[in-house]
Amino acid sequence: MGDLKQRNLITAQERLRDQVAHALRAALVAGELRPGNIYSAPGLAADFGISATPVREAMLDLAREGLVEPVRNKGFRITEVSERDLDQYTELRAMIEVPTVGKVTQLATVEQLEALRPVAEEIVAHAREHNLIGYLDADRRFHLQLLGLAGNERLVETVGDLRKRSRLYGLTRLDERGQLISSAEEHIELLDLMVAGDELAAQECMARHLGHVRSLWAQARDEPVEPRPKRTLGNR
């Protein structure tokens, strides 16, 4: 019985850690945690009304994702990305993703492409429902699964890393104005072109989509952030 209680305790701690990590990701996306600022685990724990341990563990998870970086004896700094960085990341993604879309259009079967349609529709649904975390997660899955059809695992890893380095922060105001929906719908447009076998149009669509995403980054960075209610694990 002692072992069972210990396992139950560990499971509960892991769930709390996951809840905190999810809440922190939501705060990042909303712009409540600002790039360049340092936040301590005890300070964030006080906001959540919990101990510092699960917050520290959750922040270490975010550090592994490239969202924050540990600062010795202070806490965690929210990763800051410059305009130059964003331009370079976008250029690199275009150099990889645009020709890869052309290759996948030639090689993938209709069945393989159609398997991605539920994910593309999920992106649009999340944008319309103002679910930013769901939107970003579905967007990541769509792009990486699509690239995976080219059969190059290193390519997928490279784009995955570029996406982590160019995370979208402060999207709440853009989301509230419905500005993410048109970008979301481009995934369905892209998929339709690929299913139709129109390689050139699919490549043009991907290039346009990446340019659209870059403009959203610029707008998100310029948006003022209004004071938000105290963070809780139940309000994510």
TrEMBL record:
It holds the Pfam family GntR. GO terms for molecular function: DNA binding; DNA-binding transcription factor activity. InterPro entries: GntR_C, TF_FadR/GntR_C, Tscrpt_reg_HTH_GntR, WH-like_DNA-bd_sf, WH_DNA-bd_sf. Residues 14-81 form the HTH gntR-type domain. Keywords: DNA-binding, Transcription, Transcription regulation. It comes from the Bacteria. PANTHER family: GNTR FAMILY REGULATORY PROTEIN (PTHR43537:SF45), TRANSCRIPTIONAL REGULATOR, GNTR FAMILY (PTHR43537). This is GntR family transcriptional regulator. It comes from Streptomyces sp. NBC_00060.
